[in-house]
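Forwarding these from the shared drive since the link keeps breaking.
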Amino acid sequence: MHDTTMWPFGSLMMVLFAALVILPFSLIFKKAGYSQWLGLLMILPIVNLVLLYFLAFSTWPYDKAHHSPRD
């Protein structure tokens, strides 16, 4: 009665969704001066929230290199 098989494109949709999350965050981390590979961590629950707060409240390496004042 209960079908335990996955929707035929379920795996493809998960990969597509992960790419939609990873790509923009990778670019944001790269522009901020961090490794773009940190974007991969954004698909992990709880870790993504910690990284988001870290990104928002830390002084970015890009800012340090260009000596721009913080707001």
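-- next protein --
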Amino acid sequence: MNHARLPFYGWVVVAAAFAAMSGLGEVQYSFGVFFKALENEFGWTRALTASGFTSLAIGLGLSSIAYGWLTDRYSPRPVLFVATLVTGISLMLCSRIETLVQLQVLLFATGLGVGGVTPVSTATVARWFENRSGGGIALGVTMAGLGMGAIVYAPVLSRLIPVLGWRACFLVAGMAFLVVVGLAALAMKPSNLTSARADSSATGLPSEVAPMSRVRLLRSREFLQLVLIMVVTTFSFQVVTVHLVPYAVDIGISQIAAAGALGFMGGMSVPGRLSSGVLSTRLGWGKTLVIAQFGMAAAILSLPFVRQESMLYAVAGLYGFCQGVRSVSVLGVLGHIFGMRNVGGSTGVMLAIAQTAGAAGPLLAGYLFDRWGSYSITFIPLGVVILVVAALSIRLGIGSSMTAHGSSRGA
């Protein structure tokens, strides 16, 4: 009896992961939109206001290891459901805050929830496409969801805040997350890791290798290089997403235009994420990662010279594109170090270290602004540090040893 061949379910998982990552984009990119409203409502300094996002980042970092461990051992659906409920409810409760401590606690809880989105989404997609053609594209589409979340949520919330008020907009943000990511969780199914082997050179994702132990992972030179890259670039990402809107408003650009630039930055990460697979095929994941770092540094170093809306959009677009390339290429490199079977756990470790260390970024930038009245004292040193790390990456061999079709596994 002939049965019609069913479409490959992995692409349904990619669509679900894309939607889930858009929810993460909502959370990460939207705080900057609420920044001025919170500052004006409560009279907090820039540092105190930014501490809310710092709390979120710490919660995200701390939970990433746990979610990565859960993703490697259990079905992705219940894990993502738990993450969805914690995140959505915490965001909605932010509408009731009256003190800074309440904001910090609720955003910390939001981080504890949303920390599960990336490990679940990327690990599930990676396993579905292990040894299948289109794996690099699938991972790029998944990560593009984060940018799509920025395109949609940041401009929409910016326009709704003057109409509904920031409290109602926290409710809207929480309910949107519950609906979008909750539906995505329904479509998440575990893959069968015992599928037939195929030629991994056609996928962009490595074939399964013997898993590296956590101890060996933490001691490997390549992993430590990636941690350094992730800490610096995550630090910069959190500074830019939180402070871009208040910085733009300070130099005379309207709140709506500034929020649009923030959304455009996230939007440009979409072609960056999608093109990362093509770039890695030609250059290798390592070289792609190094180039992305140089682009991010150039954008940050250009920020102090922005004087008009068009310049702001150009710089935000460059940063967003390179950030998108960086976010996928670092996962591509990581897969070659640790293997696909434990990619959830290794991603969780990486995110935990980067997010926890990078959480100080918005707080430090706010403190320096409160003390000196300028963001240049943050942007210029930060751009220089990224340049130095990119140069070190070349010197230490990450740009040549970690390619799309080969692996350099540290001992």
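The chain has one domain: 10-401. The CA atoms of residues 26 and 153 lie 6 Å apart.

- D.
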